[in-house]
Amino acid sequence: MTSSSIASDATPRSPRGPLRSAVVFNPVRVEDMPERRELIESILTDAGWPLPSWLETTEQDPGAGQARHAIENGAQLVFVCGGDGTVRSCIEGLADTGIALAILPAGTGNLLATNLEVPLDPAAAVRLATVGGRRRIDIGDVEGHAFAVMAGIGFDAALIGDASTTLKARIGAPAYVVSALRHLRDRRMSIEIRIDEELTLNRRARTVVVGNVGRLQGGVELLPDASPGSGQFDVAILTPRTLGQWAALAWGVVRRNRQVHHREVLRGSRITVTSDRDEPRQLDGDVIDPGRTLAVAVRPGALEICVPLPDGGSAPSARERKPR
Length: 324
Hints:
disordered C terminus; disordered N terminus; 9 helices; Tumour Suppressor Smad4
């Protein structure tokens, strides 16, 4: 299954009633918050929903605590208005609770929203939540931290860490190409990869990416067969060796070329990548402490999320489905 078919996996169901909701928002990523708040409240009121509570993220707590607070105060659905980092943090607070996440994309990445075909337009994204399309997706766990898009060790984490926030806001995905140029001469890692305790491989690679979904910045399909509800993640071992091969990959990001060469793809539910030295690491674009190991465990169906339905209909949560 390709990432472009994700939304069609949602099963049409009967409509939900109005829900109590909360909006967790990142004030740094969302500059037009007063206008967005007016828009969100207007759409929810028109849909017959009560006004949401509003919870602002902080540098100390980028979303997980706010999501948990929303649930404790009776929220039945949590909107997240921010970039990939805010969404990832809120997922940590919502995982395994049965409370749905509705993404209101902001920032420069929005990779989970893009892969799930959630509209980037704020008004359309709010309406999507009110019509009730739901899907359970897997999430990954690394050292107690959740992610829903991709985790990486090596080159990809280095370029994410060095990409200028200002430049990303100005030019988008090509900002990562600028960052990549600084690391083209970094030497390859010697790595051991273990998949489900059954397969062990040794490789030399520039980066390893473990993905729940397949689409990168600029629409590049790194893992076209990844499916976020399969109970397994795909693993891309990237091995470009020359500057020309890296330039081709970078140019593909700029030109939205869907093909990625010089890679090996594996699949499993428990993936451990061990390098011969400390390497940069990232989860959904959030850089974490460098380390020699990236150990990923899949948590199947841990997150309920709002997604489009093929026919534009509406559906209740999976918890409300009646047995046949």
